Amino acid sequence: MTASMKRDNRMSASQSLISGGVAGVFSRTATSPLDVVKIVTQVGTFHSKRGFLNAFHTVYREEGLRAFWKGNCVACIRIVPYSAVQLATYNRFIQLHMDDLGRVSQWRAIVAGSVAGIVAALVIYPSDVIKTRLIVQNSLDPAYRGVLHALRCIYRKEGFLALYRGASLTVMGAVPFSCGSFLVYMNLDKLWGEPSFRFTPLQNFINGCLAAGVAQTLSFPFETVKRKMQAQSPVLPHCGGVDVHFTGMVDCFRQVVKAQGFLGLWNGLTANLLKLPTGTWSGPEPRTPRVERTEEIAEEQEL
């Protein structure tokens, strides 16, 4: 199975990035309550002790309606730089592995997307740490007064490396993420009972949600541990609200399983899956290679 690059020349790269950024801001803002509940559940703050639905009630009761948009400012700010780095990395990777007919294998296309995501995530990783800190703090008695204040405080009190705490998990989580995406895309023909080049926009939307759901479910334990590592801080009340105490990445996995069982690594997954439709529909994405079975296309053209 191969994939070909399908370019859209109706908009320039900058126009595509700006329009995608605007869509991403609306998407992030609309799903911010789910993101807040997901992160406090992953970290294990007191808000999440009674389950998914009660977490919404607890956040609202303790901090008010505005608390559902904690960290949304930095989440929106990071969209454009993240997407710019992701697009540049993805396109460069594809160009390096494209044959003379402009095709790449489906596996290489998926790996390209994963590599692009890793590079972009690592470049702007400090903003992710700041976002987590802003979300887990009590907005009525905040330790950080904003994005810049959080950046300055973390750097001064905890050092530069604190801004990259848990970054290795981004790389590690990309492996099950890529495998999950590949598993889904390799079986789409069987799922729909027709070749992929015949898929309608609705089918492609469902495919994107399905692939993202499987991939994120497989990689979710790595994100859960990453969030706990980002939030944990000796200078914050209750060590950042993390529900387990640990000395490093491996120990964090061990302590979560010991305290909550193996499924504790998937705390917050429900909120994450509910965000998928808006994330799949909006936001700037790399030019996705279109999967084609060359022999089937030839048969269609002959008919």
Helical proportion, percent range: 55-70%
Question: Rg to the nearest angstrom?
Answer: 20 Å
Approximate shape: globular
The total count of strands amounts to 3
Q: Which spans have pLDDT < 50 for at least 5 consecutive residues?
A: 283-303
Q: Mind summarizing the main beta sheet?
A: 3 strands, antiparallel
Q: Give, in order, the helices and strands.
A: EHHHHHEHHHHHHHHHEH
User: In percent terms, what proportion of residues is strand?
Assistant: under 5%
Which structural category do the helix and sheet elements fall into?
mainly alpha
Number of helices in the DSSP assignment: 15
- Output mean pLDDT: 85
Adjacency order of strands in the biggest sheet: 2-1-3
How far the N terminus sits from the C terminus, by CA atoms, comes to: 21 Å
